[in-house]
Design brief:
about 270 residues; alpha/beta; 6-stranded mixed beta sheet; 6 helices
């Protein structure tokens, strides 16, 4: 029986990725939901686990995309907007941080077992009951830098107000972050650069404490790898690395890229 339910879950996931304009939930009756965000549970991605994992940039993207696609009110920016901020940071050397606080719902496995939810002949999910207990409510609370790695022990972070996505109905009162630079937690002001100096390179597990208006705290951890910059190598090991910038800028509009930058080599 477990194999059957796993097969159903994999089939639903396959429909989600294989169908283009035809979405598996297009005909689904969502009345009785409390969040207006419906996520299809998948054996490949368990969003609940993300709350307790040390996530990286790509996992944040994955979670953000799932929430944005499941939002029936389409309140979220396209994922490409976050990716553009990440690309820009390679030239500004200011690493953006994003925060995602979202309540969402899934269809319970019991709803499929009891045939309260099924698939029609066209592959769409259909609801066979008005029972609102077919939905299970979840919360996702994540914070992460939009870079997996950075060159330079001197590091600058920034949390823009436009990079905070919160649909929980609870106001964020305070954000503190331990950047693992030896100085512990510090209070963060939005839209202001945060200068951090690391004594050595390596993977850094950033720890976030987000205080809500209710007095509750959300804890989230994410990771970024800090490598030596050319200046660090020169200062610490007397290694001089020459760099050069391309004199031409490639036109990448054919690949859907609106912003082009000159290439940099060493």
């Amino acid at each position: 029986m477990k194999t059957l339910y796993l097969l159903i879950a994999v089939t639903l996931t396959s429909f989600c990725f294989a169908q283009n304009k035809k979405k598996i939930l297009d005909k689904f009756d969502t009345s009785g939901m409390s969040t207006n965000i419906l996520i299809q549970e998948s054996p490949l991605i368990n969003l609940d686990n993300y709350n307790t994992k040390d996530i990286n940039t790509y996992q944040f993207y994955q979670a953000y995309k799932a929430i944005a696609l499941g939002d029936l009110q389409q309140r979220f920016q396209p994922l490409q907007t976050l990716k553009q901020k990440s690309k820009k940071s390679y030239f500004t050397s200011i690493i953006p941080i994003a925060i995602l606080l979202s309540d969402y719902e899934t269809i319970t496995p019991e709803a499929f077992k009891t045939n309260k939810v099924s698939q029609d002949a066209q592959g769409y999910l259909v609801r066979n009951t008005i029972d609102s207990t077919i939905f299970k409510r979840h919360n996702l609370s994540l914070a992460a830098p939009l870079r997996t790695k950075h060159k330079g022990l001197q590091t600058t972070f920034n949390i823009s107000s436009s990079s905070i996505f919160n649909n929980t109905g609870q106001t964020i009162e305070k954000i503190t972050i331990d950047f693992k630079d030896g100085l512990g937690f510090r209070t963060i002001e939005l839209n202001k650069n945060i200068s951090i100096t690391y004594n050595e390179p390596g993977e850094k597990i950033l720890e976030f404490k987000i205080k809500l208006e209710t007095g509750d705290f959300i804890i989230s951890k994410s990771k970024i790898t800090i490598n030596y910059s050319n200046q660090d190598l020169q200062n610490q090991f007397n290694r001089i690395i020459n760099t050069f910038t391309s004199t031409t800028i490639a036109n990448l509009s054919a690949y859907g890229e609106s912003n082009s930058y000159p290439g940099v080599g060493e």
